[in-house]
Amino acid sequence: MYGKRKLTALAAVAAFSLSLALSACGGGNTAATTQPTGMPTGVPTTVPTALPSMPGAAGGEFGPACATIPKDPANPGSLEMMAQQPVATAAAANPQLSTLAAAIQAGELADTLNNAEAVTVFAPTNEAFAKIPKADLDKVLADKELLKKILAYHVVDGKTAPDALAGAHKTLEGQDITVTGSGTEFKVNDTAMIVCGNIQTRNGVVYLVDSVLMPPS
Prior knowledge:
Elements lengths: L1 H27 L1 H5 L44 H4 L4 H7 L4 H9 L3 H6 L3 E6 L1 H5 L3 H9 L1 H9 L2 E3 L9 E4 L5 E7 L2 E4 L3 E9 L3 E6 L8
Parallel strand pairs: 1-7
Antiparallel strand pairs: 1-2, 3-4, 4-5, 5-6, 6-7
């Protein structure tokens, strides 16, 4: 009888020990089984908010003269409409560039500019042409070869973004222009300020300048 009770007690102790061992093993695996497989840990779930675009280097138009561009999107001279037109056509629709548009027509360069793959135009405003004495301006407009030379000196191959403006740029006339400045303030050849920059057209980008650029003789 004593031997039977002893065996029963030993069996109970063994069962209790096995129960503790299984509980310990189960507790050690809790973290592993509750963490879904294949899921990264410590990764934020919020999506960063995009920063608003800034003028100049970020790609927007900049400069005080931009305020005079028509705001009605249906106006041919508005930013929206100019973006849909080739560069010479867009310039002709801009009220600040009527003299330049007439010069482009007189120099028979409209088709050349409109058919170009990509160009950057440093476009003198009407006020820029007004700085030239009328007799001298009439003389230039009457001399087609001289007019073409001057106009070509305002055109650079390819689209130049604001953050790539500073530096020397070879013009279609063959000589370089030099742009200095940064941000939203730039000067061309130390004589002409960019008064409205980064105007997009279908095949080019336009920078309005407040003086006519004259190629070195």
